[in-house]
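Study this chain:
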Amino acid sequence: MNRKYCDIISGIIFMFFSSCIYILSITTLKRNENIKYDSSTMPKIIATLLFLISLMLVIKGFKNLIKQQKIENNTPKINVLAVLITFILIGFYTFSMEYLGFILSSIFYITIQTIVFTNYNWKTNFIGVIKFKIKI
């Protein structure tokens, strides 16, 4: 059973069983017509409460299903190219430290890494980052 639909399915099953209990409690024999509460009263109360609780379970299941669908639609997709470029940049960063030094290597690494992880136009961001680095 899929975990998304677990509350909905179990709530529907309990609603079915509570309906069966209620119907079966109606068919019980009454000893005296003058008695207000007889042997069918308590099963009817329990069946009604079980039906209401299972109805709340079904509603909760639908709310959770809608919430999960909204969360699944908002999850960002993994950009494989960005991850690959990141590993290449880390390798370049470690090897360039010996030749360029820590400060210059870090500036270039952070600049290029910032460009990789932005969602905007690469050319515009590259020019903006370069202008910002030159001002510093």
